[in-house]
């Protein structure tokens, strides 16, 4: 492949990886119908990530009753969310970010953020399913 073609591929990959879309906020995960079990699902997702790839770990920055502030970082990109829950559902809310092209006026952000938060929601869903 020529240098020119290689550069073209690199530019396409860079542009594709930086796409911006509507932020998914909040993301709602159906709960168990039991407050204690929903609390356990969140705890298991954050505190006991055994068997999961460390690159998928979210870390708790603060923990209040039924409200945790979580942070995920990869290189210069940072996503921060607030997870709240009651007996019915678990909600993931955007809190802040760095390097993810968040635009409050347009309610848009890099697809990377949406992917990370979707992975978090899927892990919480797995934990909820175990507790039903």
Task: Describe what this molecule looks like in 3D.
The protein has 132 residues and is an alpha+beta fold. The chain has a single domain (20-131), classed as TATA-Binding Protein, CATH 3.30.310. It contains 3 helices and 7 strands, in the order αββαβββββα. β5 (77-85) and β6 (89-98) form a beta hairpin.
Name its key features.
132 residues, alpha+beta, TATA-Binding Protein, 5-stranded antiparallel sheet, two-stranded antiparallel sheet, 3 helices, 7 strands, globular
Structure at a glance:
The protein contains three helices and seven strands, in the order αββαβββββα. With 132 residues, it is of the alpha+beta class. The protein has one domain (20-131): TATA-Binding Protein.
Helix and strand arrangement:
Blueprint: H1 3-17, E1 20-22, E2 27-30, H2 35-47, E3 59-64, E4 67-74, E5 77-85, E6 89-98, E7 108-110, H3 111-131
Antiparallel strand pairs: 1-7, 2-6, 3-4, 4-5, 5-6
Helical content class = 25-40%
Number of domains: 1
Q: State the total count of DSSP E strands.
A: 7
Biggest sheet statistics: 5 strands, antiparallel
Distance from first to last alpha carbon: 54 Å
């Amino acid at each position: 492949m020529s240098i020119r073609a290689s550069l073209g591929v690199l530019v396409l990959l860079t542009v594709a990886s930086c796409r911006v879309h509507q932020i998914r906020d909040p993301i709602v995960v159906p709960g168990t119908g039991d407050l204690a079990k929903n609390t356990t699902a969140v705890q298991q997702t954050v505190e006991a990530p055994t068997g999961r790839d460390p690159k998928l770990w979210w870390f708790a920055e603060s923990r209040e009753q039924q409200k945790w502030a979580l942070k995920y970082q990869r290189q210069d990109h940072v996503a921060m969310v607030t997870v709240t829950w009651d007996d019915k559902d678990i909600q993931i809310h955007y809190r802040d970010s760095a390097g993810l092209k968040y635009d409050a006026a347009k309610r848009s952000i890099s697809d990377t953020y949406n992917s990370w938060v979707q992975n978090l929601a899927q892990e919480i869903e797995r934990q909820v399913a175990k507790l039903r």
